[in-house]
Specification:
Elements: H1 3-11, H2 15-20, E1 43-45, E2 67-68, H3 74-77, H4 83-99, E3 104-106, H5 129-144, E4 149-150, E5 168-170, H6 173-191, E6 195-197, E7 202-203, E8 206-207, H7 212-222, E9 228-230, H8 239-245, H9 257-268, H10 273-291, H11 302-316, E10 318-322, E11 335-338, E12 356-357, H12 363-366, E13 378-381, H13 393-404, E14 408-414, H14 433-445, E15 449-454, E16 469-472, H15 480-488, E17 521-523, H16 532-537, E18 555-562, E19 566-568, E20 573-581, E21 587-598, E22 608-617, E23 622-629, E24 635-638, E25 643-646, E26 649-656, E27 662-671, H17 686-691, H18 693-716, H19 726-734, H20 741-744, H21 750-762
Parallel strand pairs: 1-3, 2-12, 3-4, 5-7, 5-17, 6-9, 11-13, 11-14, 14-15, 15-16, 19-27
Antiparallel strand pairs: 7-8, 10-16, 18-20, 20-23, 21-22, 21-26, 24-25, 26-27
Helix pairs in contact: 1-10, 4-5, 4-11, 5-6, 11-15, 13-14
């Protein structure tokens, strides 16, 4: 429907009808207005599968939903670093939504992984905002290409589950812009999501559903968002203030209570009816966009989508360790599959994203059909029971015996359901004690031990030096077993890369001292130093760095080139690098481009990821990968001008195997063309003035006049005792406020000082 027609439709609505569109009909449906042909539409949880509930609806996954396909969770799909693959996932979800008459899928979930402890990290993509916004953008693009809406969430700063409905995320402007808003920004600008879901928490004391700066000034006016904003379920606090701030839809149903508040506010004159009209227009634009593009022939293709889930997971799995090329496994090896998750994998998280999978494929199931696998060469032992995290000596002994009699032991371990879920945060980074005990016991008798991890967030690995191989499968969806077996036996070459850092221990994490907060305030004291930005800047050892991942083949980089060595910030930089598969099998490589400022006056991370691509290469094949960087790749958020700014100077363009290991670099010089308005006062330092070319010129001329008259007097006062040296004088001068010239430089009076300050501010 054209916007003009929607405006006409709104003009025909009563005040009560307009207010009614601002809340849900029930748990999953929006309200309609039958007499005007406005339909009621259904929204459903996602984002890695369709959780459609018809009866006994709830938001935490307690009651069953329809049978559907569970794809890999966000923690896994981000590790694919494959936009095309995630876009295909989005297209498939969109088709499933059309088949089930769902107008909007609630996702992707794209909050920054501030701490490994966040209970919902399994849904989130990355500790890096560029990875998060790019992977989310691919999913949004795919879903919406099928004329189904998305609702990227949770906007914003929902980085913990503890008191998430009352806690305030306290952060400075630069941290907000460079990390937490940046996680959403490119996705919103490039993909135009139909809706946005705001988060439960407050930001600097204001609930997000009532935050006009975030919802209107930034999201709509600055980024160009033109859809509607909905609350997370039950997040509404003050309905009228939220409407003024730019929150269109309260979910779920309010039973008419807050609709009446809106009507009363308009009648009392405390709410402009034009605000309500605009809210309805933004909402109806999306409602009719779906309704007019319904695909009534869409069919849910369960088997096809299950196969896609396996294909996606194969690219998400990260090969963390492969000592002595223990992987891939040979079909003629006798292999012991050990661990509960080999038979009953943990493949998804708990809470609102929990999918009622129409089938689940374990590793033991997969050996029945996988290529290059001999079922008769595989034995199984449960090894542990992690329901109570109690070491079962009988189960452990059986596993040790079978491992000892095999050529290789593959232990399927990770985190049980009660260790990570929506609603609460983890208390530690440890795996269950029963699992750690089993791994160490098996590794003691079997030198060829491999661990396959099923978890939604980093774990400590006290046994890492005792095993030869580690596969990170994450929460890989209902086809995880087939994907893992294909990677174990080389039917698929692992190509996943970590989208988050695995620290050695919890105490090493940037927000260890402040995570969770106190008195319902969580202070983001680490600022912009989240994840690898912190570890690399401190040159700190980690278990596995951001971007890490091994392959069954090898790659070589050469010929890193840039199209210009010196350029202005408003120009783009074209970069190319040659990548060669130097191994013996086809493989995919993730090319990671980091930008590292060299020097400068602004406190910044050592390096930041600014581009990535994933390519497939046959043995001996070389491809040239190109990137284009704009101003934002070199910029930081400047809190004086409240905008992005590039500091003039040298920057290294770096190609890294991961955030810690740089293989090629090239230095460029970027010139800023943005002036920062500067007001000098009596407390401005000489160092500040001398850094400003124009200020330096004015200051030097003034000082030349003063010293010309007083040079002999100053020379007579020179110290010859050795108590004052040149380095000391230079340091003192750099940090000396102008007012101190009155005490230390003869001939400087208050009038002379004020005249100098006036000249500096006139430039």
């Amino acid at each position: 429907m054209e916007r003009e027609n929607i405006k006409e439709l709104i003009s025909q609505m009563t005040l009560e009808e307009k207010a009614s569109l601002c809340s849900g009909l029930d748990f999953w449906h929006t309200k309609g207005v039958e007499r005007l042909g406005i339909p009621s539409e259904m929204v459903c949880d996602g984002p890695h599968g369709l959780r459609k509930q018809d009866d006994a609806a709830d938001h935490l996954g307690i009651n069953d939903s329809i049978k559907a396909v569970c794809f890999p969770a966000g923690c896994a799909t981000a590790s694919s670093f494959n936009r095309d693959l995630v876009r295909k996932l989005g297209e498939t979800l969109g088709e499933e939504c059309q088949a089930e008459h769902v107008s909007t899928i609630l996702g992707p979930a794209m909050n920054i992984k501030r701490s490994p402890l966040c209970g919902r990290n399994f849904e989130y993509y990355s500790e890096d905002p560029y990875v998060s916004t790019e992977i989310a953008g691919a999913l949004v693009h795919g879903v919406q290409s099928k004329h189904v809406g998305t609702s990227p969430k949770h906007f914003m700063a929902n980085n913990q589950e503890y008191h998430r409905m009352t806690s305030s995320s306290e952060m400075d402007e630069r941290t907000m812009r460079e990390i937490y808003l940046a996680s959403f920004e490119r996705m919103v600008k490039n993909e135009k999501p139909w809706t946005i879901m705001n988060s439960y928490n407050k930001l600097n004391g204001t609930y997000l559903c009532e935050n006009k700066e975030i919802l209107t000034d930034i999201l709509r006016k600055e980024w160009g968002f033109d859809g509607y904003v909905m609350t997370d379920w039950g997040a509404m606090d003050d309905r009228v203030e939220a409407l003024k701030a730019g929150c269109n839809l309260e979910m779920p149903s309010c039973g008419g209570v807050t609709d009446a508040e809106i009507v009363a506010a308009v009648q009392e004159g405390t709410l402009d009816e034009a605000v309500l009209d605009q809210c309805c227009e933004e909402f109806l634009n999306i409602i009719f966009q779906y309704e007019e593009n319904r695909d009534k022939d869409a069919v849910f293709q369960f088997e096809r989508d299950h196969g896609l889930a396996r294909q996606i997971e194969e690219e998400c799995i990260v090969l963390l360790k492969n000592e002595g090329a223990v992987l891939p496994l040979s079909p003629d090896k006798n292999v012991a599959f050990i661990g509960k998750y080999a038979k009953a994998p943990r493949y998804q998280g708990g809470g609102s994203s929990h999918i009622n999978s129409y089938k689940v494929e374990s590793a033991l199931d997969a050996v029945e059909f996988a290529k290059n696998v001999r079922k008769d060469r595989i034995v199984f032992a449960q090894g542990y029971d992690d329901k109570e995290d109690r070491i079962d000596e009988e189960l452990c002994a059986e596993a040790v015996e079978k491992a000892q009699n095999a050529d290789v032991a593959v232990i399927f371990a990770g985190l049980p359901d009660n260790f990570e879920s929506e609603g609460y945060d983890r208390k530690h980074m440890r795996m269950p004690d029963c699992q750690n005990h089993l791994i160490e016991a098996v590794a003691a008798v079997q030198p060829n031990t491999i661990v396959v991890l099923h978890n939604g967030a980093p774990v400590e690995m006290p046994w890492i030096d005792q095993v030869k191989g580690v596969l990170e499968a994450y929460l890989g969806g209902q086809a995880v077993g087939g994907a893992v077996v294909n990677v174990l036996y080389g039917n698929a070459n692992p190509s996943g890369r970590l989208a988050e850092t695995f620290p050695l221990r919890l105490q090493d994490t940037p927000c260890y001292l402040t995570f969770g907060g106190e008195h319902d305030k969580s202070v983001y004291a680490e600022g912009i130093f989240v994840g690898y930005r912190y570890y690399t800047s401190k040159d700190m050892r980690v278990l596995f760095p951001f971007g890490h991942g091994l392959s069954y083949t090898t790659f070589a980089y050469k010929n890193l080139s840039v199209d210009k060595k010196v350029f202005n910030e408003n120009e783009s930089l074209n970069i190319s690098v040659d990548v060669t598969n130097t191994g013996t099998r086809f493989g995919k490589e993730v090319i990671q481009l980091y930008v590292a400022p060299k020097g400068g006056t602004v406190i910044r991370p050592l390096r930041e990821l600014r581009a990535f691509d994933k390519i497939g290469l046959n043995p001996g094949e070389t491809k040239t990968v190109t990137f284009v960087l704009d101003k934002r790749a070199f910029a930081y958020w400047n809190t004086e001008i409240h905008n992005w700014r590039v500091e003039s100077g040298a920057y290294e363009i770096q190609i890294g195997e991961n955030a810690q290991d740089i293989v090629l670099s090239n230095t460029v010089t970027v010139n800023s063309v943005t002036d920062i308005p500067k007001v000098y006062t009596r407390n401005s330092t000489m160092g500040e003035i001398l850094e400003d070319p124009k200020g330096k010129e004015i200051f030097q001329k003034t000082m030349a006049q003063i010293l010309g008259d007083n040079a002999q007097l100053i020379a007579a006062q020179e110290d010859n005792s050795g108590a004052i040296n040149e380095e000391m004088m230079t340091a003192m001068a750099e940090g000396m406020p102008l007012r101190q010239m009155l005490s230390f430089i003869p001939g400087v009076s208050r009038n002379v000082l004020e005249e100098l300050i006036n000249k500096l501010n006139e430039k």
